[in-house]
Amino acid sequence: MPFRIGLSGLNAASADLEVTGNNIANAGTVGFKESRAEFADVFANSYGDITKTAIGSGVRLEAVTQQFSQGNIDFTDNALDLAINGEGFFVLNDNGEQLYTRAGAFQVNRDGFVVNSAGQRLQVFPPVEENSPDPGFSTGQLSDLQLDFGDNPPRPTSEIDMSINLSSEAEQIVDEEAGVINVTADPANTGAVTESRVYVVDSSNPNYLNPFTLTYDATNDEYTYDDGTGTQVPVAAENVVVSGDKTTITVNGWAMELYGTPADGDQFSTAPEATATVGSANTSAVTVSSLAVLNSSDPDILDPATLVYQGANAAGDEQYLLNGKLVLATVSGGQHVISENGWELTLSGAPDVGDEFSVTFEPGAPVKFDQTDPETYQYSTALTLYDSLGAPRTATMYFVKTENTLEWEAYVDLSGSNLSPPQPQGPVKLTFDSNGVMTSPTTATDFTFDLANYDPVNGGLLGEIDPVTGEATGVVSIDFSDITQFGPDYSVDDLNQDGFTTGRLVGFDVDQSGVVFARYTNGQAAALGQVALANFTNPQGLLQLGDNNWAESYAAGDVVYGEAGTSSLGLVQSGGLEASNVDLAEELVNLIIAQRNYQANAQTISTADAITQTIINIR
Fold first, then answer.
1. What is the pLDDT of residues 581-618, one digit of tens each?
2. Which residues form the Flagellar hook protein FlgE/F/G-like D1 domain (predicted)?
3. Region label for 473, one of left (φ > 0), alpha (ψ between -120 and 50) or beta (otherwise)
C-alpha cells in the first residue's frame, strides 16, 4: 500500500509540475489565462469499515482550472489590437462555429474582414444605418466585421443651426435724403396679398415721391400705373421679379414688395409722407388745401420750409418769405398757390400779413436690402453648405433691423447666383421679447434652392435625401430659435450644418464601447459595427480548444451577448493587448514546491522498499 500512496504522490507532483510548466511556457501568450492544479485525497472504504481508523490511499488530480483574473494591458500602435478591461470574451466566427477568446490581436485579410492569426473573423453588432456616425446597432444579430476602404459619400445640407447675437443697439437703416413712402391696398382687393412694403431704390429719380397707383392686370400678367396723363403704362417685365410668394416691382426710384398672389384689378397706391401746417397764431381764415410734389429731384425738396405772408406788392402780386427768400404766389379762384423747391402748396382763404405756414417731408425712408451693398444691412455671416455631389456652396445670412426695436429680418443667399438681379431667400421676421430672447419663429424655416440657378451648375441638389426617389428635396431648414438680441456686440457662438463633401479614408478607431469607426478627410466618422462581447455564468467550465480559444460547454452555462460597458461586461481598449495573467515569481516558487513534493513522495517509496526488504530478510 505505501508504494501506491507514494506513486499517487509522484503522479500528483508530476501533474503539478506540468501545469506550472505550461503556465511558464505561456507567460508571453496574449490573452492566456493561467491554470491551477487542484488535488483531492483518496480514501478506499468498504462496507463496515470504521471511518475514524481508515487510512488514506493517496492523492489524485481533481481538476485543472483556469484562473480568469485580469491580465495587464500592453499598449501598441495598432488600432485593431483590442483588449477587454473587465469580464467578457471576443466572439469569433470559425466557418460558422462560434468561438470565444481574450486574445485581441486582430488584422485585416485581403477581403477587408477583421481576423486573428488563425483567420477567424471578429463578430460585431451591425449598424442599423450604414455610413452614419451614430446609427444604433442591431444587438440581436452578429455579423463579421468588414472594413470599408472606399471613399465616404457626400451628404447634402438639409439643416442649419445657428446661435448668433444681434446688437440690441442697432437701428433701422434709412435713406436720410428720401421721404417715407406709404403703401396702401385698395379696399376692393381680394386679400390674397397679405403684406406690401416699399423701399427707396433711387432717391434721385424725379418721380419717386410722386403718388400714384399700381394696378394688376391678370390677363396680361402685368402691372400698370398712370403716367400722369391718364394713360396706363405697363411696368417693364425685367422690373417685376417673382420669388416664391414675393413679387418685387421696381419703378420710379422705389421698389414695392407684395407677398401673396394678386387678383385681376387689385390696386396698390404709394404716397410720400408730406405735411403742410398752418401756424397757431394765424387767423382761422386760411387753411391748407393741398401739398403736391412737382419735382422730387429738387435738392431742397426735403428741407423744412417756413412761409410768412408779406401782403401784395405794388403790382398786386401776393408775396411770401420762404426761409427768408421772397417768393410770389399765384392767385387762382381765391387760392394762393406757391410753387417752390419741387413742391406746390395751395392755401385757401385770405391770409393776414405775418401769417406763417410750414412745409415738411418726413426724412428717413427705409432702404431696400441689397446683398451687394453693405450699407443696406447691419450684419452678415457665412458658412459652407454641400450639395448632393459634395460641391461646396457658400451661404450668407444677412440681418436687417426694422423700425421695431425688437424685430429683425433675415435673408439667405447662395453664392454663384446666375439670376439677374440675384434673389436672396427671405425675409424671415425675427421678433424678440424685452429680455432679448427670440419669440418667433419658434420652428425651423424652410428655404428652397434651385441649384440650376447657381454656379457651378453640376446637377447636384440640396436638402434631405428622399428615401423613395433617392433625390434631394432642395429644401434647407434653418433654425433661428437660438438667436438673441443682447448688448451692443454682434457675435457668432455656433453655426452648424449637417452636410459634408466626399472624404478619403484616414484610418479606423475603436472606442471603449467597442464601436468601430472609419475616419475620413471630410471630418466624418462612419460606424461600421460594435464589437460583440460574450460572457458565461461559469467561464471555468468553458471547453479549451487551444489557439487561445474556448468553446461553449454545458458546465459553462448559456452564452450571453452584450455591448462593452453594459451589465457585467468590461470595456474595450483599442491599441492594447491583454498580456498573460501568469505571475512568473509565483510559478517559480510553485516549481520548488512541486520538486520537493516529488522528492518527498519518492522518499516514501524508498522507505517502503527498505521496510519490505527487512521483512524479506527475516529468517
1. 888 888 889 888 888 877 887 787 777 767 787 778 77
2. 83-181
3. alpha
Alpha helices in 317-468 (DSSP H): none
Other CB atoms closer than 10 Å to residue 56's CB: what's the count?
11
Locate 142 and state its grid cell.
452578429
- The string of DSSP codes covering 116-134 is -TT-PEEEEEPBSSTT-SS
Closest by CA to 406, choosing from 359, 383, 439, 375, is 439
> Exposed (0-12), middle (13-18) or buried (19+): which is 472, by Cβ within 10 Å?
buried
320, 307 in Cβ contact below 8 A?
yes
How are strands ordered across the β-sheet holding 181-185? Answer: 181-185, 267-272, 212-217, 222-226, 232-234
Contact 183, 198 (CB under 8 A): yes
Name which of 24, 100, 75 is nearest 578 in CA terms: 75
Contact predicate 4/595, CB 8 Å:
no
Strands 571-574 and 254-260: unpaired
Instruction: Examine residue 456 and say whether the peptide bond preceding it is cis (omega within 30 degrees of 0).
Output: yes
Give the span between the Cα atoms of 595 and 408, in whole angstroms. Answer: 91
* Residue showing cell 439667405: 412
| pTM of structure | 0.67
